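Subject: IclR family transcriptional regulator

B.,
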Amino acid sequence: MGQHSGIGVVDKTVAILAAAADGPAALSDLVERTQIPRATAHRLAVALEVHRLLIRDSEGRFIPGPRLAELAATAGDPLLDRAIDVLAWVRDTSGESAQLYRRDGRDRVCVAAAERAAGLRTTVPLGARLPLTAGSGAQVLCAWEPPDTVSHLLQTAQFTDRSLAEVRRRGWAQSVGQREAGVASVSAPVFGRGRQVVAAISISGPIERLGRSPGQRLAPILTAGAQRLQAALT
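Prediction pasted inline below.
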């Protein structure tokens, strides 16, 4: 269960949250990931659901809830302070779910999200870790990195150094079924000081709605959202 504080119920609660952040989890998944007894895992997960720290997806699985994003927004991170409003604007303008990713080693982590309220949608749970080898968000987070820091990723990536050069040229990336079958996405970089990419702002949804060239319609919305986020960092 990771680190131990000496307060058992707190450690188990944190373990349940971390297990749900690893991907949508049925109760059996929570038990397997945490090794917490089934009755205890169920009691803690339901309690976290009451406080909106966990919610359930369309299949009844536990995923991180909106209260986590609300708490994160109070932590003094200027990017996250601005992200909730900007992602809501991107979602409302595009009609699609919006996410913000940061790089963490060989992964990208969803640090904020605004989900489409109704209809067919793709859900990326807050805290979800996705590989840096596929998807438009991964392309953006790799495109402005020094070549020697991403060369090992390109060995197994679904994109090439040539496609990353194209991402830099046009200022955004798109993917169609690259990370997950049936899902399309568009992403744009959020620059910090010194033109360093500190995050990727993304829109994702089903291919049948976004189409095979989603960047043509959605990239202007994302680049506008990225500029709003950048304003909080300068």
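The chain has two domains: 8-63, 67-231.

T.
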